[in-house]
């Protein structure tokens, strides 16, 4: 289970770090393995990103009560394939 969760969080954080449209909300050593929070570098693109997430059947991504932006909950039951769907939307995002 630990190896699966590590793979999921590494996959998502790698895309957040790579992609110029997004940035993480915590420093690397404090990053959660279960609730990945991130924001857009330009909030003007938020609606378009949320539209693409909805089209990809990604639910509950919008907002985190303390940091805003986005929160991806990647708990134990979520398969890595679901994380890959979000990563693909992020990779293909071209406002």
Textual characterization of the structure:
The model has no long low-confidence stretch (mean pLDDT about 95). The protein is built from three helices and three strands; from the N terminus they run H-E-E-H-E-H. The chain has about 100 residues and is α+β, with helices and mostly antiparallel strands. Helix 1 packs parallel to helix 3. The protein has a single domain, classed as Alpha-Beta Complex (Aspartate Aminotransferase, domain 1), CATH 3.90.1150.10.
How do the strands and helices of this protein lay out in sequence?
Blueprint: H1 2-18, E1 22-24, E2 35-40, H2 46-55, E3 70-73, H3 80-92
Antiparallel strand pairs: 1-2, 2-3
Mean pLDDT across residues: 94
Number of strands: 3
**How many structural domains does the protein architecture include?**
1
CATH 4th-level superfamily:
Aspartate Aminotransferase, domain 1
Task: Please provide the ordered H/E string of secondary-structure elements.
Answer: HEEHEH
Strand content: 5-15%
Shape: globular
Largest sheet: 3 strands, antiparallel
């Amino acid at each position: 289970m630990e190896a699966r969760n590590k793979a999921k969080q590494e996959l998502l954080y790698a895309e957040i770090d790579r992609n110029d449209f997004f940035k993480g909300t915590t420093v690397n050593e404090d990053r959660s393995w279960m609730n990945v929070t991130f924001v857009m570098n330009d909030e003007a693109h938020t609606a378009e990103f949320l539209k693409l997430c909805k089209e990809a059947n990604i639910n509950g991504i919008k907002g985190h009560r303390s940091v805003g932006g986005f929160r991806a909950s990647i708990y134990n039951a979520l398969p890595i394939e679901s994380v890959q769907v979000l990563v693909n939307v992020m990779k293909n995002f071209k406002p």
